[in-house]
Amino acid sequence: MFDTTALNQQRNFFEGHAAIWLFGYGSLIWKADFDFLERRPAYILGWERRFWQASHDHRGTPEAPGRVATLIRAKDSICHGMAYRITPEVLAPLDVREKNGYLREKVPLTFVDDNGNGVEQSEGLIYLASDDNPAFLGEAPLAEMAQQIASAHGPSGPNRDYLVNLARALQELGAEDTHIFALEQQLRHF
Ligand code: SIN
C-alpha cells in the first residue's frame, strides 16, 4: 500500500509554530481521537467533499476497499468542517492515520460563529488525497458508491458508519452538502 507518512514529515508548512489549526472535513470532524487545545466550526472556500478516495486500511481492505472523503477543487464552493488547534507533536499520529494517500496542504480557513457566519480567517492544515494518489477512485454513480460503502469493512469498522457519522456531524453543524446527503440517502437502499 502507498504510504504518505514519510512524505508528510517533510511538509512542514508551520515550522516553528507552537500551535497549528487543523481543518477536518471527513472522519476528523466526528472522530477526534487526538489531543487538541480548542475546536471551532469552520469552512474552506473553493473545495467540495467527495467520497472518491479508497480506504484499504480503515474502512476497507486491500481486497475490498471502502470509500472515504477527499476534496476536489470547485471555485466558489464552500466546504464546512471542524477546525482544531493542535500542538505540532499531534501531527505524527495524524500522518499515520491519514497515510493512505493523504498529503498535508496549507489552506486559508474561515471560522464560523453560532449563526453560521464567517468571522475570522487563519491559515490551516488539511489532509488532502488528490487525484494523482494511487488510492484515488474518482467518480462513480451514486448507487454504486453507496453499494460499495454498504458492503466494505476495515480495521476501523464498517464503511457505512463513516458515512452515517459524517452526515450526522454535518447536520449538527448546520452545513449543506448535497453530495454527502444524497449518498447517505442511497445507503438506505443497501
Ligand atoms: C479529514 O477528515 O479531514 C481527512 C479525511 C478523513 O480522515 O476522513
TrEMBL record:
InterPro entries: ChaC, GGCT-like, GGCT-like_sf. Signal peptide: none annotated. GO terms for cellular component: cytoplasm. Keywords: Lyase. One of its GO terms (molecular function) is glutathione specific gamma-glutamylcyclotransferase activity. The keyword ATP-binding does not apply. It holds the Pfam family ChaC. GO terms for biological process: glutathione catabolic process. It is an enzyme of class 4 (lyase). SUPFAM superfamilies: Gamma-glutamyl cyclotransferase-like (SSF110857). Its EC number is 4.3.2.7. The keyword Transferase does not apply. Transmembrane segments: none annotated. PANTHER family: CATION TRANSPORT PROTEIN CHAC-RELATED (PTHR12192), GLUTATHIONE-SPECIFIC GAMMA-GLUTAMYLCYCLOTRANSFERASE 2 (PTHR12192:SF2). This is glutathione-specific gamma-glutamylcyclotransferase. The lineage of its organism: Bacteria, Pseudomonadati, Pseudomonadota, Gammaproteobacteria, Oceanospirillales.
